[in-house]
Amino acid sequence: MHKGCVIRVGDLGEFGVIRRISGRLPQGSGVILGPGDDAAILEAPDGRVVVSTDLLIEGRHFRRDWSSGYDIGRKAAAQNLSDIVAMGAAPTAIVVGLGLPGEASAEWLDALTDGFRDECALVGATVAGGDIARSDVVVIGVTALGDLGGRRPVTRSGARPGDVVAVAGRLGYAAAGLAFLSARREAAEAGTPDLAEEFVDAHRRPEPPYACGPEAAGLGATAMLDVSDGLLQDAGHIAAASGVRIVLDPEALPVPEAMARLAGELGADPLNWVLTGGEDHALAATFPPDVSLPPSWRVIGQVSEAAGEAKAEVTGRAETSGGWDHFRE
Amino acid sequence: MHKGCVIRVGDLGEFGVIRRISGRLPQGSGVILGPGDDAAILEAPDGRVVVSTDLLIEGRHFRRDWSSGYDIGRKAAAQNLSDIVAMGAAPTAIVVGLGLPGEASAEWLDALTDGFRDECALVGATVAGGDIARSDVVVIGVTALGDLGGRRPVTRSGARPGDVVAVAGRLGYAAAGLAFLSARREAAEAGTPDLAEEFVDAHRRPEPPYACGPEAAGLGATAMLDVSDGLLQDAGHIAAASGVRIVLDPEALPVPEAMARLAGELGADPLNWVLTGGEDHALAATFPPDVSLPPSWRVIGQVSEAAGEAKAEVTGRAETSGGWDHFRE
Predict the structure, then answer these.
(1) How far is the alpha carbon of B195 from chain A, nearest alpha carbon, in Å?
(2) Structural domains present in chain A
(3) Once rounded to an integer, what is the mean pLDDT over residues A125-145?
């Protein structure tokens, strides 16, 4: 125990950490066997299971001085749950591999755990198991599982010429918040001005439109993905997988007034945030042209025959399918 | 491209790395949708899915100077596949989150990938998906999934007084190899003497007795786990979860002559390796006393009523349920 009565995870030991985490987590109705054994057992009533994994590393995907433990937990879970709904499935559970520095406080770990729990609760999922290890920086490996409930999965490869392209959820918000934090580190530490607050919050904690994934599957979406590399690049992924051309209409892309004002302050192009920002976890999908879309979906482009290279582009802009490479420095 | 034509993963970029990995991996018959979309889709014919995750971090769980990329891939997969068979299930697939330093060579990555592939092939599983990220050290998050094939899962909590305790697989081999490598770093670099080779190999690449997991479930095992914290501590986990006392017979614990000789060279107690070594991924299980066990299982102890604290002990030795805390420095 250190002075000031701060409990460090290094003081708790492996089983102490596991007990502390497990004690904060409810077990879901679809969890047959939760944490504490070699493996968890989940119901898979559909007879198929959808699975996606992501690895988040401190200093690359998040910073402990820019985001709270709670927000990091919410975001790490959101990122994976979003991948599951992007297939048209309902998330059932996540398992988490956690690398922790010994000096991390137990209080921070509690907040992280609560973040996982609360984000999962939004979709009726729970944390079914995990593993912890000692690490110099915080490492979070989240694997999410989901059930298709009898639905046909919506992959990236089914877009057809004539389809419309639509998005659900926010675009560019997290990128705007990150741009603000990067440009104004000192200001951020002294408090965030009102203008940027909404966007900084969006960077810290995405709000994926979870219900829209299964909804799109039910509406007959021909292709769908979670926008994680930026809209233009991800539309390019659909184009490449489907062998089609996608043209996005910049007039249809939502640039809220507050975002335009923040961009003005920072000397940035807000449409660039909308086209290349990837952390909002919006959903992009293609639908047959005769589908009547509910208000949660906004039509932003068209699918046509690939004349030459299958790619995505924006009317009136030169760049095509560019975006974020998670692997670059 | 760097001089000497060594391709670094930093040169390949995210999609180059993903293409390179995917190109080396066959897709399994139970994989409905493999890598390349937001999520993979696997068959789950049992209607339940077994899932386990582990996080391995360079410098703590493996060293690139002590193990090849191939061996690290084999070991990372083995560790998780073993957790699945320890429930009595058949592994179907793994997904892998991979953190890579930019300076890692593409050749090393190929070897790692082949290691995942070949270890999975031993149990009929494949790599169904993954994620890559930039990291200062190699980070490997493996999540394995499995199918119970209609069998009742074998948890840690079903041991009953009167049951026998049995193990399948090797005990103490990896610990002996690690002790040798730790004591004789220079000798290891100059080549491993014959005496230690078998054990160093066991440290680098475990050989879990995969078939014995579903076999034990079929034989009516009342409790089972994968020995990953050391036999004594893991027997203690069964004792605690089941509310029983477990007594192990040191005479029944296999200490091969070569291990005894290596222990003599290093001034170590070989029974300590057998009781506390955790990386061989042996299976420990309890069975009703009337079960006729096949030769793959060796009876090593007895289950009795817990008189006071539910724990495991070894006849004639003072320590109880001690072992490895993965979280300590």
Answers:
(1) 32
(2) 3-147 (3.30.1330.10), 164-314 (3.90.650.10)
(3) 96
- Chain A nearest-CA distance from B91, in A, is 11
Nearest to A33 among B86, B97, B155 (CB): B155
Nearest to B209 by CA among B285, B143, B152: B285
B229 is in an annotated binding site: yes
Whether B39 and A47 lie within 8 Å, measured CB to CB: no
Which residue of B87, B94, B327 is the best one to mutate when testing the A interface, meaning the one whose CB has the most A CBs within 10 A? B327
| Share in percent of chain B as helix, strand, coil (round to 5) | 35, 25, 40
Q: Which residue in chain A has the smallest CA separation from B226?
A: A38
Determine the residue of chain B that is closest to A134 in CA distance: B327
- What letter does residue B295 receive in the DSSP assignment? T
Q: How far apart are CA A133 and CA B252, in angstroms?
A: 33
Name beta bridge partners: A52: A144
Question: Helices then strands (H, E): number in chain A?
Answer: 10, 12
Give yes or no for residue B101 having a pLDDT over 70: yes
**Pick from B91, B135, B22, B140: which is nearest to A53 by CA?**
B140
Q: For B171-223, how does the pLDDT look when each residue is reduced to its tens digit (9 = 90+)?
A: 999 999 999 988 876 554 555 678 889 999 999 899 999 999 999 999 999 99
Q: Kindly report the nearest CA distance between residue A97 and chain B, in angstroms.
A: 5
Contact of B280 with B173, CB cutoff 8 Å: yes
Q: Determine the Cα–Cα distance for residues A210 and B1; give it in Å rounded to an integer.
A: 42
Chain B residues with CB inside 8 Å of A136's CB? 136-137
Give the whole-angstrom CA distance, residue A259 versus residue A243: 34
Strand ranges of the sheet holding B48-57, from the earlier edge strand across to the other edge: A31-33, A40-43, B48-57, B139-147, B90-100, B126-134
Of the partner residues B53, B95, B155, the one whose CB lies closest to the CB of residue A130: B53
- Taking residues A298-303, what's their average pLDDT? 97
Kindly state the average pLDDT of the residues A172-186: 86
Angle between helices B9-22 and B106-121 (to 10 degrees): 20
Which segments within B101-163 are labelled E, that is strand?
126-134, 139-147
Size of interface A-B (CB pairs under 8 A): 245
* Subunit contact A51:B133, Cβ cutoff 8 A: no
Report pLDDT for A185: 62
Helix residue ranges, H only, chain A: 9-22, 69-85, 106-121, 173-183, 185-189, 194-204, 212-219, 231-242, 257-266, 270-276
Angle at A32 between CA A29 and CA A34, to 5 degrees: 95
Rounded CA Rg of chain B: 21
**For residue B1, what pLDDT band results from cuts at 50, 70 and 90?**
very low
* B292 vs B310, residue with greater confidence: B292
Q: Are strands B90-100 and B126-134 parallel, antiparallel or unpaired?
A: parallel
Rounded distance between C-alpha atoms, residue A126 and residue A144, angstroms = 10
- At B216 the pLDDT is 98
Cα separations in angstroms, B166 against A38, B89, B232, B307: 17, 19, 13, 22
Mutate one of B17, B51, B62, B92 to test the A interface: name it (highest A CB count within 10 A). B51
Query: How far B87 CA lies from chain A's nearest CA (Å)?
Result: 7
- Let me know: does B86 contact B226? Beta carbons within 8 Å: yes
* A53 known member of a binding site: yes
Mention every residue, 6+ apart, whose C-beta is less than 8 A from residue A175. Answer: A203, A273, A276, A277, A278, A279, A280
